[in-house]
Specification:
Chain lengths: 255, 226
């Protein structure tokens, strides 16, 4: 087990039930600064619940989650902790009444209390980073899915988080729009952002992840480097699942 | 020939009683504007109470909204005007008009606002919270601005409805357009023509306000809303 003071994120024996439904049955793993880990697994396995627990949108029943020196489940400054953790998910969650620029500025102004002028400059810089300088004044309804997701990424990045969580960020997108979002994520990973990504885009996992975590029924079945995971998975369940993924999404070996 | 005469008489009646018609109209418009203003604020507060309040507050707001919406406005005006004095609360007809219509309008506004609040999806709360926003910030900066925009069509209907239904004020004798019309007719016995004039005035201000609201709505239109 890693030293909890060395890892950026350390999850220890995480447990969660919804009623009688045991969703997380003792999940443990950690992320060092700059690491990129991908979680895969069948639907309903608890992948989203893990991410939701990390920023305490869902309160776990047991276990510990450490972000550096802070234990998230028991801390009393959750709003400060959440600023350190960017969260991007399938449904984008853009604020419909605000332009792309305003979406990114809102957290800076209301949460970080950054003066408006600076907030605008910072927001523009983040939107530039995700290649969206041309849609600053567009409303979400006027953007494509890929653009929406990139606004969501810029909005999360604007808070200068230490860790980025991605929950199936490309699952709601038309196939031709997936690439632009994955490219932004790959660049982010190469620039050294610490990332925990739930995705079935194996091309992405292969290109940038340090470890793939295979979860099933609330447990981690296997975790290993992408090379090992694809070439010689230990558990027969992993092999079966990866085989199914291949059928659904293709080999994903391309870069 | 007869039609021309009738039209002439209508104009004649209107001109002769211009001051009264205008004072009635002024009262009706002021009443409508004040009722809509206070009713909207109270309505939003009731909707927030119902959607986000702790249980007793939520129950109270729900009960208020359902009772008001479930009883005739006429009965509400009668209770305020005729029944309250029995408990020592004596309000003037004008006060009852302002109070009664505001309390009624608030309940309807609350219901429209609540539906609009609920149309803001869970994803937006999720992203707001994950940015570190507090609950009240999320409600104030994200939910309410959208709820207000979704409510605009219902609000417009309510405005037109209140504009016309303030005419119920004549039953308790508040000096609105209808009451003035009744007063004029009781002196010249031209009931049909006087009420026709009143109806035409209502129609004109309804069309005019619909047009103005429409202009304002277009000016503030945001892609993706309505
Ligand atoms: N808020 C909730 N209340 C009740 N049950 C929930 C809640 N959130 C998730 N669940 C249940 O927990 C289980 C795991 O859900 P979760 O969303 O974490 O799975 P997942 O691995 O992300 O699946 P998918 O690949 O479909 O996104 C599911 O059975 C789901 O129905
Ligand atoms: Mg999920």
């Amino acid at each position: 087990m890693e030293d909890k003071n060395r890892s950026l994120l350390n999850i220890i024996d995480l447990k969660k039930s919804f009623g009688d439904n045991l969703v997380l049955d003792g999940i443990s793993f950690s992320l060092d600064t700059g690491e990129n880990k991908v979680i895969i697994g069948p639907s309903g396995t608890g992948k989203s619940t893990v991410l939701n627990c990390v920023n305490r949108l869902v309160v776990p029943d047991g276990g510990e989650i450490w972000l550096e020196d802070t234990e998230i489940i028991s801390c009393n400054n959750i709003n400060e902790i959440r600023q350190e953790i960017g969260y991007v998910f399938q449904g984008f969650g853009l604020f419909h009444h605000l332009t792309a620029l305003r979406n990114v500025m809102l957290g800076l102004i209301r949460v970080k209390k950054v003066p408006k002028k600076e907030a605008k400059e910072q927001a523009i810089a983040k939107l530039e980073q995700v290649g969206l300088l041309d849609v600053l004044d567009s409303y979400p309804a006027q953007l494509s899915g890929g653009q929406k997701q990139r606004v969501a990424i810029a909005r999360a990045l604007a808070m200068e988080p230490k860790l980025m969580l991605f929950d199936e960020p490309t699952s709601a997108l038309d196939p031709e729009l997936i690439g632009e979002v994955l490219n932004v994520m790959k660049n982010l990973a190469r620039e050294g952002m610490t990332m925990l990504v739930v995705t079935h885009e194996m091309g992405f996992a292969r290109a940038v992840s340090d470890e793939i975590i295979f979860m099933e029924k609330g447990k981690i079945v296997e975790k290993s480097s992408p090379e090992k995971m694809f070439k010689q998975p230990e558990n027969p369940r992993t092999r079966e699942f990866l085989f199914k993924l291949d059928e659904l999404y293709g080999k994903g070996g391309e870069e | 020939m007869l039609e021309v005469l009738t039209e002439f008489m209508i104009i004649d009646i209107f001109v002769r009683n211009f001051g009264r018609f205008m004072s009635g109209l002024r009262f009706t418009i002021t009443l409508t504007l004040v009722v809509m203003f206070l009713g909207t604020i109270l309505g939003v507060i009731l909707a927030l109470g119902r959607s986000y309040g702790i249980k007793p507050i939520s129950w109270f707001c729900t009960a208020y909204i359902e009772i008001i919406r479930g009883t005739p406005m006429l009965a509400q005006l009668f209770i305020l005007y005729f029944a309250l004095p029995a408990y020592g609360i004596r309000l003037s007809a004008v006060a009852v008009a302002y109070l009664g219509f505001t309390l009624n309008c608030a309940a309807y506004q609350a219901e429209y606002t609540r539906v609009s609040i609920e149309s803001v999806g869970a994803d937006q709360y999720k992203s707001a919270y994950s940015l570190g926003m507090k609950r009240w910030q999320t409600i104030l900066f994200i939910v309410l601005p959208q709820a207000v925009r979704w409510s605009i069509p219902a609000w417009t209907n309510e405005f037109i409805y209140i504009l016309k239904y303030t005419s119920l004020a004549y039953i308790i004798g508040a000096p609105d357009l209808m009451t003035q019309g009744k007063f004029i007719a009781s002196r010249n016995y031209q009931f049909f023509r006087v009420y026709l004039i009143a109806a035409i005035i209502y129609l004109i201000i309804v069309l005019l306000s619909t047009w103005i609201i429409d202009k304002i709505e277009k000016k503030f239109k945001i892609p993706g809303f309505g």
